[in-house]
Design brief:
It contains three helices and 52 strands. It is elongated and about 155 Å long. The two termini are 29 Å apart.
C-alpha cells in the first residue's frame, strides 16, 4: 500500500516523545506527489533502524511528479512518474514497465490498494459542492474509466490513505484542524469508525505498516502513524484501533537530511544474526500443537467389552430390551481391551530418539533394503493388511452383527484385494479399492517417515519399562551387587585378589624328645584368595596359635583363611605341648591382584547380603517381607551403581527391528547387572538409522584413556521396556503395548504429530529461504535543486 506524508499545522495531544518540532524539508501530503526535486531515492528498508539506505534507486527526471507504491503487488514499492495525465511505472531496477493514462491533467491524485487484489493504483479526487468526490481505478495496467466512485469528507480536508484494520484494502482517514483524525475502515461514503488525536504543531505525519526489528517483528498488515521532527528524527506509533493507547512511540529513528523530502515505501530487509549473516527460515514439518478429541453425531451403537473371548465386544442392551446408541455430543472413548494403534501422522523414531527421514530412491542401494528409501514411483502405502479401519477421528470401526442374540461386534480390518473383501463381507475393506489419494502419501526426501494408519503400537527401544504390580516387585535402595559410587558418580575402588599361593618355609626338623618341632604346609583352595593351612608339627603338640599375617589369628589346628588384598604375608605358628613347651615355625603367602569396584555386599555387616529395601511406611529394611512394593504402571529405573545396560550398539552383529519396520543395527542390551567397560570393542552409542544417516559414536572413543573403566548408572535412568537379552542377541520390537483400559478419550491427532494435507502430503512451515522483515520504511527524495 502506498504511504504518503502530510504536514499538519495544528496541535494534537498525546505523543510523549519529548522533542521539539524543527524546520524540515518539504513533504508530500498523503496521495500527492512525493514532492521536492531530484530523481534519486534512498530507501531504508523495513528492518533498518539506522541511518544508512538499504537501496538507492534512480528514475525519471529531477522535476517529475513522483508517487511511490506497490504497483504489481509483490511486497515492494517502486516509483511512478506522472506527466500530465500519463503515468510511467518503474520496476525494482528503475526501468519503465507500464504506461497508462487516467483522469485529467489538473486532477488531484491519491494512491492506495483499493480492492486488496492488484496492488496500489490511483484515485482521482475532485471537489464537488463542498465535498470530495473519489474516482477509483483498481489497476495501473490499463487506461480507462473508474472502477468505482464515492463521496467522503469535506472540501479542504487533509486526506490520508492506509489499511487501518489489516484487511488488505486501503481506505481513507481525514485529518482536520480540530486536532482529530477520523478513520473509515470501508470504502464509499459514510461516517467515521473511530477518531483519535496524535502529534504536535508542525509535525510531518507519515502513514505506514511499520516493522519493529529490535523485537523481531515485521509489519502486521495494518497501518500506523509516524511523525517527523527535528529535521530527520522520526517517531513511529503503536498500532491504531478504536480505543487504542498510542500515546508513546513504538520506536524512533534518525534518517536522511533535514532538507530531504520524506515518504514511506515497502522494502523487505533480510534478518541477520549477530555476525551479519542472513537467518534462514528453515523448512520443517508443521505439527499439531495439541491433542484433538471428538464426539459422536448420535445414533451410533453403544459398545462394551465382553471381558475377553471372541468376539470381545458387543452392543449394550437396555433394560427394556432395546439396543443402546450414543447421543449426539457423547465423547468418543476407547473400549477396554481395544488395541493401541498409530493414526498415520506420528513420525517413526529410532533408538537414538531421532526421527527417521526418507531418502531418495537409489537403485544401487536396494540390495541393502533400507526401510527409509522412497519407492521408485514415490507412492508410500498408508495402510497395511490386518490392521483396523479407523474413522476420521482415529477410532476403530466395528461391524455389529444384529442377527446375533447379543449383537456381537468386531473391528473392521484391512485386506489387500477386492476379492478378499468380498469373501469376508462387512468385516473387511480392501486397500486396493481406495483411490490413490486415500491409499498413498507421496513424501519427499527429507520428510519424516510416518507410521502407517492403524499400525499396532509396539514396545520401542526408547519406551520406559513399568512395573506390573504383581506383589513381588520390591522397592530397593540398592542391591548387594550394586557398586558404591563416590560424590562424582565414580565407583569406589578396593583391592581385588586374583590368586593366592603358599610359599614354604625351612625344611621340617626332627624330634626325639622334649619340646615339639613346629611345622605346617599350605595350599590354595578353589575359593579366590583362600589358603588351607595344615599342621605338620612333631612331638604331639596340644595347642596351636596362628598369626596369619594380615592381623588375623586362629587357634585351630588346620585353619583356612581368605586374603582380601594383594601382597606378601608372613604366617607364624606356635605349637605347644601338654607340658608347656613350645616351638615356632614361619612360612609365607603371596597374593596377587589389583583393585575392583566396591559393592554394597562388601560394606554389609557380617551375615547380611548388602541388599537394602525401602521400608513400607518409611525408612529402610533388609527384610524383604517388610519392603514397599511397586504399583502397576510405576516406571522402572536404574539404581545408583547398577550396571549400565541401556542402548549399546554393536555394528558387527545382530539387527533390531524397531517400530514401523525400520531396521537398526545391533543394539546390545545386557539383562545382567554386569557393567560394560568403556573400552569394550565394537560397542557404540547413538545408533543411526537404516540408511546410515545418523553418526554413531564408539564408546571406546568417548574418553581420552585406554583404561577399561566400568560404566555405571548414577540412578534414576529409565529402563527399556524391551525384554533385555544377552549381548549380541537380536532384539525385535514386536510386543504390543498394553491395550486400553477403557474410557480413554479418542485422540484424532496428538500434539507433535505431523499435519498432512487432504492428499496425505506432509505440510511445511518455512521455505529454507532467508527470513525478512516486511512492512513499510522511510524513503527520501534527495533535493538537488
Amino acid at each position: 500500500m502506498s504511504k504518503r506524508t502530510l504536514t499538519v499545522s495544528f496541535l494534537t495531544a498525546g505523543l510523549t516523545v519529548g522533542v521539539i518540532a524543527g524546520a524540515v524539508g518539504p513533504a508530500a501530503a498523503q496521495g500527492n506527489p512525493v514532492g521536492g526535486s531530484g530523481n534519486v531515492y534512498y530507501l531504508a528498508g523495513a528492518g533498518n533502524t539506522g541511518g544508512t539506505a538499504q537501496e538507492v534507486l534512480a528514475f525519471g527526471d529531477p522535476g517529475d511528479e513522483v508517487f511511490y507504491g506497490d504497483w504489481n503487488n509483490d511486497g515492494t514499492d517502486t516509483p511512478m512518474v506522472r506527466r500530465n495525465n500519463v503515468f510511467y511505472v518503474a520496476d525494482k531496477d528503475g526501468k519503465t514497465v507500464d504506461v497508462f493514462a487516467y483522469g485529467n491533467p489538473g486532477d488531484k491524485v491519491i494512491v492506495g490498494d483499493w480492492d486488496g487484489k492488484n496492488g496500489d493504483s490511483l484515485a482521482v479526487v475532485r471537489t464537488e459542492q463542498g465535498t470530495n468526490h473519489f474516482f477509483v481505478k483498481n489497476d495501473v495496467k490499463t487506461t480507462g474509466k473508474a472502477d468505482s466512485e464515492y463521496f467522503y469528507g469535506n472540501a479542504g480536508d487533509n486526506i490520508l490513505v492506509g489499511d487501518w484494520d489489516g484487511d488488505d484494502k486501503d481506505t481513507l482517514m481525514v485529518a482536520r484542524p480540530d486536532t482529530s483524525f477520523h478513520v473509515r475502515n470501508s470504502s464509499g461514503g459514510g461516517v467515521e469508525d473511530y477518531a483519535f488525536t496524535y502529534g504536535n504543531p508542525g509535525d510531518t505525519i507519515l502513514v505506514g505498516d511499520w516493522a519493529d526489528p529490535a523485537n523481531g517483528k515485521s509489519g502486521n498488515g495494518a497501518d500506523q502513524i509516524a511523525v517527523r521532527r527535528d529535521g530527520n528524527h522520526y517517531f513511529f506509533s503503536k498500532e491504531l484501533g478504536k480505543g487504542a493507547d498510542i500515546g508513546t512511540a513504538m520506536r524512533d529513528q534518525r534518517y536522511g537530511e533535514a532538507t530531504d523530502t520524506v515518504f514511506a515505501a515497502k522494502l523487505p530487509t533480510n534478518v541477520v544474526d549477530k555476525d551479519g549473516n542472513p537467518v534462514v527460515n528453515t523448512k520443517k514439518p508443521v505439527t499439531y500443537t495439541s491433542d484433538s478429541t471428538s464426539s459422536y453425531a448420535g445414533g451410533e451403537p453403544l459398545l462394551k467389552s465382553t471381558g475377553g473371548g471372541s468376539p470381545a465386544f458387543a452392543q449394550v442392551q437396555n433394560n427394556d430390551g432395546s439396543w443402546a446408541t450414543h447421543n449426539a455430543g457423547d465423547p468418543k472413548t476407547h473400549l477396554a481391551g481395544e488395541k493401541k494403534v498409530y493414526l498415520g501422522t506420528e513420525p517413526v523414531v529410532g533408538p537414538d530418539g531421532a526421527t527417521l527421514k526418507w531418502v531418495k530412491y537409489d537403485a544401487a542401494a536396494i540390495g541393502n533394503n533400507p526401510s527409509n528409501m522412497l519407492p521408485q514411483d514415490g507412492n508410500v502405502e498408508r495402510y497395511s493388511v490386518n490392521t483396523p479401519v479407523l474413522d476420521a477421528d482415529g477410532l476403530p470401526t466395528y461391524y455389529v452383527d444384529t442377527t446375533s442374540a447379543s449383537h456381537t461386534a468386531q473391528p473392521i480390518k484391512w485386506v489387500q484385494t477386492h476379492t478378499q473383501a468380498v469373501a469376508q463381507p462387512n468385516v473387511t475393506k480392501a486397500i486396493e479399492d481406495l483411490s490413490n489419494a486415500d491409499r498413498y502419501i507421496t513424501p519427499q526426501a527429507g520428510d519424516p517417515v510416518l507410521h502407517k494408519r492403524g499400525e499396532a503400537i509396539n514396545v520401542g527401544l526408547n519406551d520406559a519399562a513399568t512395573y506390573t504390580g504383581s506383589g513381588s516387585e520390591y522397592v530397593k535402595v540398592h542391591d548387594g551387587s550394586d557398586a558404591v559410587l563416590d560424590a562424582n558418580g565414580e565407583p569406589v575402588m578396593i583391592p581385588s585378589v586374583a590368586a593366592a599361593s603358599f610359599v614354604a618355609g625351612p625344611a621340617q626338623g626332627t624330634w626325639t624328645s622334649g619340646a615339639p618341632v613346629a611345622y605346617f604346609t599350605g595350599a590354595a583352595t578353589s575359593n579366590m584368595g583362600e589358603i588351607q593351612f595344615t599342621d605338620g608339627s612333631l612331638g604331639s603338640p596340644t595347642a596351636w596359635s596362628w598369626d596369619l599375617g594380615d592381623g588375623t589369628r586362629s587357634n585351630l589346628k588346620n585353619p583356612a583363611h581368605t586374603y582380601k588384598a594383594a601382597g606378601d604375608y608372613t604366617v607364624k605358628l606356635i605349637a605347644t605341648s601338654g607340658s608347656g613347651d613350645s616351638a615356632v615355625y614361619s612360612a609365607s603367602v603371596r597374593v596377587t591382584g589389583s583393585t575392583r569396584p566396591q559393592t554394597y555386599a562388601d560394606t554389609a555387616p557380617s551375615g547380611q547380603t548388602g541388599t537394602v529395601y525401602t521400608k513400607d511406611g518409611g525408612g529402610t529394611t533388609t527384610d524383604s517381607t517388610k519392603a514397599a512394593k511397586y504399583q502397576a504402571g510405576d516406571p522402572q529405573t536404574y539404581r545408583s551403581g547398577e550396571g549400565y545396560v541401556r542402548g549399546w550398539k554393536n555394528l558387527a552383529t545382530a539387527t533390531v527391528t524397531s517400530q514401523g519396520g525400520a531396521d537398526w543395527k545391533a543394539v546390545v542390551l545386557d539383562g545382567s547387572n554386569a557393567a560394560h567397560s568403556d573400552e569394550a570393542p565394537n560397542v557404540y552409542l547413538q545408533p543411526g538409522d537404516a540408511y546410515g544417516n545418523n553418526a554413531s559414536k564408539k564408546v571406546a572413543d568417548l574418553d581420552s584413556d585406554a583404561t577399561a573403566d566400568a560404566v555405571y548408572n548414577k540412578g534414576g535412568e529409565p529402563k527399556s521396556a524391551l525384554s533385555q537379552t544377552a549381548d549380541n542377541t537380536a532384539v525385535s520390537s514386536t510386543t504390543a503395548v498394553a491395550p486400553y483400559k477403557g474410557g480413554e478419550a479418542v485422540i484424532g491427532h496428538h500434539a507433535g504429530d505431523v499435519v498432512l494435507d487432504k492428499d496425505g502430503k506432509v505440510t511445511y512451515t518455512g521455505d529454507d529461504k532467508p527470513l525478512v522483515f516486511t512492512g513499510d520504511a522511510l524513503g527520501v527524495r534527495r533535493n538537488f535543486g
